[in-house]
Amino acid sequence: MSTGQSRRTVAIAVDSSDYSEQAFNWYKEHVYHDGDQLVLIHSHELQSPVLLETIATEGWKREVEKHDQFIKDLEKKYRRKCKPLKIEAKIIVQPGPPGQVICRVAMEQDATLIVMGCRGEGTVRRTILGSVSDYVIHHTHIPVLVVPREQDKLP
Questions:
Q1: Which end of the chain is more exposed for a tag (fewer CB within 10 A), N or C?
Q2: Which of the pair, 56 or 148, is modelled with greater confidence?
Q3: pTM for the full model?
């Protein structure tokens, strides 16, 4: 990277799926430049119980602990994947609908590019449920790179 170039901030949407990992790997192999700043974004939605007294139960406490461990494992996985790049990624975990969280955090972090995987859902499913990548593409002014699933490696 020449001294005249400014640093890029790349936001990568991550979760525990193979699609997310493929997107990260594609970025690493085809887009990454020395000096990039990475912001890894994970949206989570731990649905709290409807009845407040349920929050005090052991079952709910186990759910929260399980969820916290999932987040720690995800962070550890992506820190390990960043190590060969010799960069420390900022990992941001926020509650909320994935598309909204990705757009908001990318904007707050002044990202110059958003990278995300795509599950390749069919037209009917995507029309009824919507897709996170469609949401992000239509609700941000930041360029979005959507990495399609590898047909022969994923179900």
A1: C
A2: 148
A3: 0.81
